[in-house]
Amino acid sequence: MHYASFRFLVTLALISFVAISSAFAQQAGGAQEQPASQEQPASIDLQTQTSSSTSTRAPVPAPTPEDAGWHFDVTPYLWFAGNRGTVGALGRNVSVHATPGDLLSHLDIGLMGAAEARYNRVVINGDLMWIRVSDSKALPFTGLGAVSADVRVGELVWTSNLGYRVINSPKFKFDANAGIRYWHLGQKLSFNPTILGINFNGSQNWVDVVVGGRVQVPVSKKAVIDLVGDVGGWDATAKLDYQFATLLGFKLCPRWTLQLGYRYLFIDYRQNNAVYNTITSGGIVGFTYSFK
Fold this sequence. Notes:
This protein is of the alpha+beta class. The protein has helices at 2-32, 39-56, 100-105; strands spanning 70-89, 92-98, 107-119, 122-138, 148-169, 172-192, 200-218, 223-233, 240-251, 256-271, 274-290.
């Protein structure tokens, strides 16, 4: 912003200098040569003043067709993430460590995607991640009256933000936003067969308020770097909840853009005798379809 103001002042000073030099040159020429009529110098001065006033007037920025009006983007993606940390319930905690290969090998179903709607500088966006993994293991003992155990774990994370494009220049864009992140964790443990009635089916749900932003920096006519991040929790629900992502977008055609990057998501939730303190991180690949 300071650079734009400085450039405007320099341009204004140069235009003023040219206009003053032209006026002095015309006056000097009039002193050496008698004008044919008395009305001609007045006409020249009037034109010079009008031209100078028009040239030094600050241009009024008008929204370009690229930025004005509604814009809609939809981005289905795959997050090849691993998970590590501590989870617990009823006063008992256990460490977990799952690689991206571990999660993919036990994945039952998943859905990941992001969407954005922008009107001029007002931005609304959302991000959804829903996965369900499961595993079945034979039990080495029969004292429980069961020969195997099945476990199913589901996680849904939905983030929704309302933001404003604070800086909107061709070389740099910055959006500030605030919103919520909804978490749902579901666990189901069942023994087969069992006569003890010790099957378990429970879930935790909470919402964190988050604030953050996004930076866009074009690096060429077809490539742009996106830096995205937010933070929330603050002991209101979760103790801490934050994420950041770095993406490189490459425009394949006017409506399709390939997205490649890395995402990191941290959550520390400790409520109702439940603990969920984990880091989920890994590479992202996706495609963005732009309606405008």
